[in-house]
Structures are given as structure tokens and as C-alpha cells.
Amino acid sequence: MILWVFIAVIVVAYFGVLRPVPGHPVALTVPMILFFSLIGIAGSYGVAWFGFASTPSQIRARVREFGRQALPNLRDST
User: Fold this and answer.
1) The pTM is what?
2) Do the Cβ atoms of 45 and 34 come closer than 8 Å?
3) From CA 16, how far away is CA 2, in angstroms rounded?
4) Contact 24, 61 (CB under 8 A)
5) I want to staple 16 with a disulfide (CB 3.0 to 4.6 A). Which of 12, 40, 45, 57 is the partner?
């Protein structure tokens, strides 16, 4: 959340002071941008959680399998 606070400060400074959205009130656009930034962060967190909610041995097996699939492709491309 500390990173989001930094992002929020930058968004407020940019869209609230430097470049407000023409024709729309700042009191509506800035909170909307901040709200959707939280939704984006939550989505990324969800993808990471469901993608890597595994035991360390399952992650190692997955990495080995990715390596087995990638190495033949690398050899063919040279």
C-alpha cells in the first residue's frame, strides 16, 4: 500500500493540478482514477496469488518443465 500512496500522490498532482481532464470536474476524475488503480492492483495480486499458490516443490517442477520446453526452441532459433 505504500507504493500505491506514492502513485496516488503522483496521480493527484498530475490529473488534479498539472493536466486536469478537460470538461470534467477534478473532484470526479481523480477519485475515479485512484479507484480503478486499486482494482488493477487487486487484479494483479489475484493473478499472482492463484498462479503461484503452490508448494516450493511444485514451483520447481513447473520451472523445470518450462526449461525443457524452452531449450529446444532456443536451439532451433540459432
Assistant:
1) 0.60
2) no
3) 20
4) no
5) 12
